[in-house]
Amino acid sequence: MFDLADSYVWDFWFADDGDRYHLFFLYASRALHDPEDRHYRASVGHAVSTDLVSWERVADALVRGGADDFDALATWTGSTVRRADGTWFLFYTGSRLAEDGRNVQRVGYATSSDLYTWHKNTANPVLEADGEVYERLANTEWHDEAFRDPWVFADPAGDGWHMYVTARATHGPLNGRGVVAHATSPDLETWELQAPVSAPTEQGFGQLEVTQVEQVDGRAVLLFSCMPAQATDAVRERHPRGAVWAVPADDVLGPFDIEAATPITDDDLYVGRLIQDRAGAWQLLAFRNVGPDGTFVGGITDPLPVGWDGDRLVVKQPATVSA
């Protein structure tokens, strides 16, 4: 388990250099008192492990930028990949406030030769919502301009790179507009926005947070997170406490039928991440969200083994959440 006594810890992602697992995580001081205030104080921390259980914290990866930067408010969730030339790319969300006080999210990246020292790209941001396919502040009643949590992965056929992004369509029910935005790149540096790989639906979600796609035991699956309050009535009626969701698919490139999503955890855990251990088994880690008293907990669980039960990806061993 990874926990910090003096800080809230929540969203996270991994990199694997073949020797160590690298954990990149959002954190903010518990001196804020109200855990909801953590989002606007987030930095990206870094820890390493050889077994996904015992973690050593090392120097932080990223902090927010200056007043004129796209990440002036906070640095949020992302993903980390390695290019063939050995360069590591850390894609992340840059957050800043618009004049009306709502949050605008865009995607940028930093690079590193060793996963420890990171340099932000001077041309950030590299991707943002377009207002035509993907909702912007000018055409939404949503509480922010959602375009965050970039998940980057190599094309299965070796043809460049793909990025999935938490975004919202410009049409559909307010709590069903959440879609998986898609972008492509030949080199990880320049990106072109594409059509989404999912569709808004009356039986969907307002936001598909922290997406990830993997081939688990030979079958493609999309993972995302959404709390019940941001889902449509139809979803809440079926799964009143669902929080981390899994969608089986024929291919990691989609399309993804969001109406087929089933919960892999209740709302005591959030932001599930899949990773293979050194034995090749798939594990799920998540952050501890709600404790028995209903308050935010924080900190990241130990690995939880997962597998398929028919068409459902399930946790084989439930986690215990404590305050």
UniProtKB/TrEMBL annotation:
Q: Which PANTHER family match?
A: BETA-FRUCTOSIDASE
InterPro entries, sorted: GH32_Enzymes, Glyco_hydro_32, Glyco_hydro_32_N, Glyco_hydro_beta-prop_sf
Q: What is its EC number?
A: 3.2.1.26
> Which ranges does the record mark as transmembrane?
none
Cross-referenced SMART domains, in alphabetical order? Glyco_32 (SM00640)
Q: Name one GO molecular function term.
A: beta-fructofuranosidase activity
Q: Which CDD domains match?
A: GH32-like
Top-level class of the enzyme under EC nomenclature: hydrolase
Keyword list (alphabetical) reads: Glycosidase, Hydrolase
Q: Which family does it belong to?
A: Belongs to the glycosyl hydrolase 32 family.
Source species, please? Microbacterium testaceum (Aureobacterium testaceum)
Which Gene3D superfamilies would you find in this protein's record? Glycosyl hydrolase domain, family 43
* The Glycosyl hydrolase family 32 N-terminal domain, residue ranges: 19-230
Q: What is this protein called?
A: beta-fructofuranosidase
Gene Ontology terms describing biological process: carbohydrate metabolic process
Please verify whether the record's keywords include Hydrolase: yes
Lineage of the source organism? Answer: Bacteria, Bacillati, Actinomycetota, Actinomycetes, Micrococcales
